[in-house]
Amino acid sequence: MLLTASLPCLIVILTWLWPLSLPLAFKIPLGLLMLGASQYLYWCKLSSGSVFVPQFPRPVIILFNWAFGAILFLALLQIALYLGALADALVHWQFVSIPDSVRLAAAGVAGLLAAIGVAGAIRVPTVRDVTVTIPGLPAAFEGYRLLQLSDLHISRLFPTRWTQAVVDRANAAGADLIVVTGDFIDGSVAMRRADIAPLKNLHAPDGVFAIPGNHEYFFDYREWMQHLSDLGMTMLLNAHTVLTRNGAHLVLAGVTDLSAPAHGQTGPDLEAALAGRPPNSPIVLMDHQPRTAQTAADRGVALQLSGHTHGGMLPGLARLVARGNNGFVSGRYSVGNMTLYVSNGTGLWPGFALRLFCPPEITRFCLRAGPAQ
Sorted alphabetically, which CDD domains does this protein's record hold (predicted)? Predict the structure, then answer.
């Protein structure tokens, strides 16, 4: 991990900083600062004992993410510049040359992109409206509004004030039901107690339901499940609940995360989650990771709500994220007769807080009836 994080920095030092016409007395301290910034995850581990929990003040976390982002973007820009300069040199049969002015301009662009990326990552999301047609949806649930939060990653980067703003926006959306599809936190209950406290104010007429994400298993899973329940959320751990209106039913089910067995906990069990449900009732499934969506579709699920991918965060990176999730990374997909929706996330992991062209979201679904299958 340290080598991977260092590679963009080494590219920048060797191809950008070293060739600049600057005195060594300037280059050496700047190079050391870059190396220090590139080891952000190492400093995170020193601060809390885990790379997943930076326990620095929020401005320091923002600065680290900006610096790491600027180094990453500058490394990519330098590679592009060198490829262009090499092509030009071959055409004109001359030495490869990149003026200092071009290098400095690239640094400015990289710094600006990183600033935009961090600002986009840490803002309070707006509500995104999505209409989903569900075959056989009972008339009583026509126009039913369901609000999804996902990947909050409540932490020093997303503290109490941010959480309260998300809660206020979610409550104001006027949904009939609120669901949270995992990755509530980064840190232990003791670390995050105050930051997560505003979630107790989430409310909707039909309740607030949730499932764990993979990050809950990193930090005292059982304690977190109890604490989230104490905050008023109904945790659907391989279980379901039945929503009833005028004698008609809609099933809301949830499964645990795919990473659970690696932490000695019960893995996702869709059969158990759907056992005993009313027959012929549409099923909405919460599953933090989208990669097994085909299995849910084969079991007759009408709508699956997932997160986990953070929408890919950056162009190019989204392609890699998609490969690890069976091609599912952001937005709506048709999987057989099922609709899969993968949220970009309401927050994201503070160890890599950058977003470009991939805004965070609070998602409000409006359910509409379609012809029965």
Answer: MPP_YkuE_C
Task: Say if residue 205 is in the same domain as residue 65.
Answer: no
Between CA 136 and CA 371 the distance in angstroms is: 6
The helix/strand count (H/E) of the chain reads as 11, 12
Tell me: do 131 and 118 sit in the same domain: no
pLDDT-based confidence at 96, cuts 50/70/90? low
**DSSP SS3 for 24:** helix
Three-state SS at 73: helix
User: Taking the CB of residue 49, how many other CB atoms lie within 10 A of it?
Assistant: 11
- How many domains are there within the chain? 2
Of 103, 122, 141, at which residue does a domain stop?
Answer: 122
Q: Are residues 161 and 86 in the same domain?
A: no
| CATH number of the domain to which 256 belongs | 3.60.21.10
Same domain, 186 and 319: yes
Confidence of residue 91 (pLDDT cuts 50, 70, 90): confident
SS3 of residue 287 by DSSP: coil
- 81-95, 194-208, 315-329: which range is least confident on average? 81-95
Pair (89, 132) in one structural domain: no
pLDDT of residue 370: 79
Q: How far out from the chain centre does Cα 236 lie?
A: 21
Alpha-carbon distance of 334 to 158, in angstroms, equals 32
Q: Is 286 helix (H, G, I), strand (E, B) or coil?
A: strand
Q: Which residues of 238-271 are buried (b: 16+ CB within 10 A; e: fewer)?
A: bbbbebeeeeebbbbbbbbbbbbeeeebeebebe
User: Same structural domain for residues 48 and 30?
Assistant: yes
Domain containing residue 99 = 1-122
In sequence order, what DSSP letters do the residues of 93-116 get, joined into one string? Answer: T------HHHHHHHHHHHHHHHHH
Please determine, for residue 123, whether its predicted confidence score (pLDDT) is greater than 90: yes
pLDDT tens digits, 226-260: 999 999 999 999 999 999 999 999 999 999 999 99
Which residue type, as a one-letter code, is found at position 285? L
Pairwise CA distance, residues 311 & 329, whole Å: 5
Residues 180 and 32 in one domain: no
SS3 state at 56: coil
Residue 51 sits in the same domain as residue 65: yes
